[in-house]
Fold these 2 entries.
Entry 1:
Amino acid sequence: MNTQAVSAHAERTQLGFWVYLMTDCILFASLFAAYAVLRDSTFGGPSGADIFEMPFVLSETIVLLVSSFVCGLGLLAARAGKRIATLVLFGLTCALGAGFLVMEITEFAKLAHEGHGWQESGFLSAFFTLVGTHGAHILVGLLWMAVMLVRTMRVGLTENTVRRLSLLALYWHFLDIVWIFIFTIVYLMGARV
Amino acid sequence: MMRYVVGFLGSLLLTIAAYLLVTMTNLSGGVLVALIVALAIIQLVLQLVCFLHLGEGHGGRTRAYMFIAMAGVLLILVFGSIWIMNNLNYHMMSPEAAHKHMMVERDKGF
């Protein structure tokens, strides 16, 4: 799989970034814990079943999953030194990620417009914080991707660039994994349990 | 390349399966939760191996151990919080809430 030899430096950076990702998981764990505790505290306001639109959420989920897949392909292209393919694939990842974020913001805006903001109840506070934090991570990922696209165009697929692209891909895959659990625990369980 | 395709298609199937379980079937709370959580964990492992290459390469073993350590902390954090808060809720209930709680438990058949 690895057509480029990975230097010791790259190894260390990957390990360090992995440590960061593990701590980010702990962050999300605490937000999940808060959500689990507060999910029944609707304070007269709406519950999950009242506000979640399942087909919409499924579409969002698939968009993010496809972007994670395309990102993986982009990294393969980068490691194989294929510049145009890398740009196209990471560009597509970025577009799909932006699509996901737009969908999420639309959902939030609709809720806020209907008066169901994060101040309404404990449940909504926990919901917006958890899902919003994930969304903020996505936004950062998109910015990072934009920077990497420019860098790849200007400097090309140097060892440095490929190393950074692997970290970006790790980050992006990790966000999709967190979303699996948001989808399951917040949306699927919220809709029915 | 194949592993990315496998990871993607597998995740897609698992996601749609969970979605259909919730929207199309009439399963009850406990069973439904167990099923969708199981599907989520399978998808997690699939993506960890196929996309994140957990356990592979030079530092692979180290990264895998770190993941397990993090998972331990996560489980304590999440389930510990749920347990403690549940316990607090129970012990700090007002008389009216306690009465309501007992009625609910009675209707459930306890």
Entry 2:
Amino acid sequence: MIVLTATSEGVVTRLAVAGRLTMANAAELTQAVDAAVAGGAPKVVVDLSGTTFVDSSGLGALITGLRRTRQGGGDLRIAAPTEQVRAVLELTNLDRVLHPYASVEAAHDGW
Amino acid sequence: MAGDYHLEGRATLEALDDVHALFERITEPVASIDLMLFETAVVEVIGNVVAHGQLPGEVDYVLDLEVADGELVGVVRESGKTWPVDLDTLMPPESAESGRGLPLIRAVLDDFSFAREGDSSVWRLRRCRTA
């Protein structure tokens, strides 16, 4: 299961994903991103520091979120991925489009 | 050191939690990178069965894991009806929002196969240990 927490940080929405991001709950992340975009805050930082595991469905939700935030005039950045998440991002080449920022603070850079 | 682990049940979303719990029980001194990526492959296979097994919600699975000298071996037997499985599907482009499951499994394993054996589908996974 995941615990997903949305926090408004100025013009940025921080989504902290605690737990395992898998096919069981990937839709929750998509819904949270959609809510941020609909709420007029399409710049999203996904805090992965507490995300212990991600599967291909979780990756798909991150890509969907990236597309939807950009369509809404914003962007999606990921921060502090754990070891398994970082490995899976590299194996699927997604680190090319989802550059892993070292921290949530670093992911705010320029926003 | 070697060890055998067994799990069986109905292929529903809850099965994914059961797989993670099984990996948490592994006590052999396997390198974390190997356990982590093998777990990733097993979860993707079980996830495939949950998502595509026929009939949905009515497929049973049996998972056997072996922590052997030099390798991690897994066999998933499931009762689903045949469905098309293309193990050679390529990693999709970065913009794709789906289709990474099977390529990801292949990327973390040294051997991966799928076959019908009688009334069951059998997935075989093997990863060489780095330590």
